[in-house]
DNA sequence: GTGATCCATGATACTACACA
DNA sequence: TGTGTAGTATCATGGATCAC
């Protein structure tokens, strides 16, 4: 155990394997005698030595191995709820990776999932009979067989983060596949809708069929019924009677397609509706798909796997590589999403003190100075730094580009900058349409980003040249953020987003060369 | 024209368990 | 360890539809 070489690693594996075999949440070095007697693991030398050691009351400890092999501190071991015969059945199960009762409860920790739901969420078929150990767990824990609410002693006191979750997938590239997806209704912050992609044209939008959630009493938690008279289609469809909803194609990059096995058709004989109505059911508890809804209702709040963003979020994801910067920009975008007329002061600077060109950082910052042509009380600003090619115009363009990423779609944006060269680059870029000519403009990477961003968001961009270091309040703030952004701000890197338009582009040391190359 | 998917239905394979 | 049983999902089929 103390050996750092091959012997130690082999011992580690030999200890790890029987832990999984005997369904222990802790390293078997820690197990007491009654727990060892629950299940015998055969053909494992390390296990035999540890059991013999336990019988002789000898002590062996390794804090490092024990902590590495501890699956969870919390949770009720399923083995503790079963008799010896049922434990035998439970330990034969090798595919589902179930160790504690909490893995079988829903996100709110008050209901037991079914055998079929467990299998589906683990990507298994779930064919065959329900095993005796699962039936025993049901018998022991369920307070109500119909609602599957568990007895108070087995409920979790807070949000159950050990619950099984459905892993959403990206929407299939195959235009024939009618994916089931979940999407957010803009008016209801944490409420999600179901949709079926019925058409994937080559243009910029997909068409979704909106399916409404229904409550039922036939043993499944969520039923899906096609919705006529869709309330959320005012943006996508001109006809309010249609149940279709058009979505931006950028949507497809998000993992929001529900795996096929999670949705199945309800048999006509089981349906409470007339025989003509198609009903689908969700083969998992609703919380397994919507953990964010649960997390917002229960405290403490923790970030969870499924977060669906807005179009602005998707555009930020498209251009920015660093997660920290993305989070900051999205937070600013949320504050501005109500407004359609914004004036933003931008500024950029180069770290002239750094002698190593490779380590020079570009300080970028912007401050929102006026909203709907009125001065704002609360400061909305961003300060950060940009990597690669330390040029002052690039810094100015970076600040403008970042500012455009946070503004709402369809808005009028007035950018105030002290760099006439930045204004010149943007104006030149807007006049050049051909890809070949675009690449002849200096700083074309950010210039292209700005043009694409305006196009993606349908922005009206107006550029104003202001005097550097003027006395205006927000210009001062922008100046004061200069050093802060360059020294303390998160260093961001732009994605090579134009790889969608260009098959090849010049790169030096993994960095895009954004000036004319001969 | 080819191939993939959807749909409904019936046949079959799969899985776990009981028992000898 | 092998066999039989029960419950369930999956497969095969063929027509219709749609994308390539």
Tell me the number of helical segments per DSSP (H or I, 4 or more residues long).
Answer: 16
* Major sheet summary line: 9 strands, antiparallel
> What multimeric state do the chains show?
single chain
- CATH third-tier fold name of the largest domain: Nucleotidyltransferase, domain 5
Number of separate domains: 4
Number of strands: 17
The CATH superfamily of the largest domain bears the name Ribonuclease H-like superfamily/Ribonuclease H
Radius of gyration: 29 Å
Structural class: alpha+beta
General shape? elongated
Question: Low-confidence stretches at least 5 residues in length (pLDDT < 50)?
Answer: 229-244, 248-253, 292-309
Percentage of residues in strands:
15-25%
Instruction: Based on the coordinates given, report the CATH architecture of the largest domain.
Output: 2-Layer Sandwich
Describe this structure as you would to a colleague:
The termini are far apart. The protein is elongated and about 80 Å long. The longest helix is centred in the first third of the chain and has 16 residues, at 6-21. With 518 residues, the chain is of the alpha+beta class. β4 (205-214) and β5 form a beta hairpin. The chain has 16 helices and 17 strands. It binds a DNA duplex (20 and 20 nucleotides) through residues 89, 92, 116, 125-132, 174-178, 200, 265. This is RNase H type-1 domain-containing protein.
Keywords, separated by commas or semicolons:
518 residues; RNaseH_sf; 19% strand; RNaseH-like_sf; RNA-DNA hybrid ribonuclease activity; nine-stranded antiparallel sheet; 4 domains; RNase H type-1 domain-containing protein; nucleic acid binding; DNA-binding
